[in-house]
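Archive transcription. Copying these from loose printouts into the bound notebook so they stop getting lost. Printout 1 of 2:
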Amino acid sequence: MKSKDVISKCFNESFFHVVGVLCSIGMLSLGQSSVVAQQAPATTAPATQEVPKISNAQLDSLVAPIALYSDELLAQTLAASTYPLEIIQLQQWMERNKNLKDKALADAVTKQPWDPSVQAMAAFPEVVQRLAGNIQWTTDLGNAFLAQQSDVMDAVQRMRAKAQGKGTLKTSTQQKVETKTEGGKQVIVVEQADPQVVYVPSYDPVVVYGEPAYPYYPYEYPGYYPGMGLAWGAGLALGAAWGGGWGWGCGWGNGDVNINHNNNYVNHYNRANNIRGEGGQWQHNPSHRGNAPYGDRGTADRFGGRGPGGAGAPDALVASVVSAALENLAVSAVLGNPVASAE
């Protein structure tokens, strides 16, 4: 086949892939978190002006889909949600590399230039699918976590208490639920029954928590249907292939997330960037935010990024993804291979 025919064929086959990328970031390209937008005007406020907080009722609705995750998976998901563009990139990368499993997948994803919290999500394809498939919710969750971290952690505890009160959150063959005292307050801790086997719960928030004070956030995924009670899929066994120490930790006493330095991806990232440390509070890394705007001007100023509705923010975000997608397709076309490899 002539080279120009190969290029044409590859671009034609990849057209809908590009469209898929654009569609999946469509809500992101609005440049503004819908939850925060309900609380603050779109006009740019002076840096000294305090940003109105998201209400407890809204935070409860926002965390409802993940509040019943085990603490380790919850902490990792919250950290990863602050990098919505990289979540989309991970989902697209996993779609192109479905042949990779276990250690091959674990090794390949460390070669990608993403935050370790995002890299580590490759072990949980179902969670990645939920985050990427509900990208506006993911963006709003990450923005809320960056702006009101301890409030988000408190919201998780409120929702767990509601579920426990309804009898829908309890110890089972998949999880262990305990009430402990941390930082002088009682908290509900959820852990895997087997530390090396992770179960991702599926449920309709109305069923497990009851009717909300603020409408639950629109959220869906394959297999979900309104009215479903707490359900479990197949357990994900995280053996030696994933390097051990897979999850992070919830610092309930301080209202934060703690880095797990035994995590394979954290270790890899620290070695690559010559970082030393013995654990501690997780910190957002704005270098992995890309052009995704932050939820409010105060958070954007804190991390040196774009605020909501900032000049050029939507265009810059779309342009960055389109540029990356087209570059990938161009390379694939020249090589005569429409599907990018794991390398």
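Printout 2 of 2:
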Amino acid sequence: MTEYVGAIDQGTTSSRFILFDRAGEIVSVAQKEHQQIYPKPGWVEHDPAEIWSNTAEVIAGALEQKGLSQTDLAGVGITNQRETTILWDRRSGEPLYNALVWQDTRVDERVAAYVRNGGQDRFRAQTGLPLASYFSALKLQWILDNVPDARAKAESGDAIFGTIDTWVLWNLTGGVEGGLHATDVTNASRTQLMGLASLDWDDSLLDAFNIPRAVLPKIVSSSEVYGLAQLKALRDVPVAGILGDQQAALVGQTCFAEGEAKNTYGTGCFLLMNIGTKPRESTAGLITTVAYQLGSEPACYSLEGSIAITGALVQWLRDNLGIIETSSDVERLAREAEDNGDVYFVPAFSGLYAPHWKENARGVIVGLTRYANRNHIARAVLEATAYQTREVLEAMEQDSGIAIKELRVDGGMVANEFLMQFQSDILDVPVVRPKIAETTALGAAYAAGLAVGYWSGAEELRRNWAEDERWVSGMEEKKRAELYASWQKAVTRSFDWISAG
């Protein structure tokens, strides 16, 4: 009996497998962190073999917890950290190099060279994306140019490229024994190699970035049966959904109507608004991306504001400075400060993403006096997430002409009630947390479940959504304006820290 749908949620810091029932409730979950590798300043890598090993382990673990087997699953979906880039040998299954993580900035000089030869928006009309180290094309180019024999193997088809979804799908469906080499439209739209309108690899982009077509996966929709799992724990379960993590959260929040928006608070922060079936170019520093494509239906698009460092800043406070022992300690420390002590933390560790797109920015703490203590630092860390979200939300309203009446939120940081209240205060709109906060995995499960007929359609999914808590602003407008003005001043202090190449 097929009672559940599974979701592989391969994130920046960990891999999870979550089982959902028909009501969208979590039945079982297993999670395992993987190593963060920092070979040089600005370089961020993962071990693809470790990621796949952990993924297989958590799949088995979540099933074992409830005494379930593959026969209990109607299907499985995949959601993943986006833009992270892997090149591996098709014959051996071995990566040619570590995965270059979306936060990695080693291609900054390449970005600058392309910008000099056509401007930061040189490819925006085709891809919806500005030139930035964030996206996959230049990461792949770096591997091809710097790893011995990589380009020759890629051109012959012996080496193949994928973002994390492709790596997981390939291994899940057999690996060297006939694994599927595919990616969905949402992940393909983050490579800077796919035409946003055509939903296909664009030859002019491949030429511009010097990427051989033979290395690329097939582009598929976000919700269809791609093949059957060959991993023992999931043997013959249909693999039927793929969504990049932020698009998965949009689906998990059932934002199927134009103008509906959600913000996910994870390693970074990602605000997405559904803009319907026609892509719209941003003029306010956002990006246009594919939101989802359900089977043969037309693709839906979204405006997105990507913030590189939010939850990762709390981890940095824990791991690099030792100010807190666990991530949850940051809320207690922040509450012990009556205010921020005029301290602002701009976490431009990998440059600034939306809406600034400043590759040369770096992190700064400003406003320090002898009065400031660790409580003020902790509060500034949390407030930075809320300020960055406001910057993106204002840009989104400007681009879309739609005033956001409430913000649906999800991700690990929404458990932090201090942050959620401050977010509502600084936005002056209600912030709403759903009962199921794991909307990223839920979105992947929904995509797979729709493909195999486990759920009937969008309306059934909407009925699953339920509000858990709502925060409403209690801050005076004068105070809100003063805080935000100081934040904007702090942001300018982070600009141009790295000299242009």
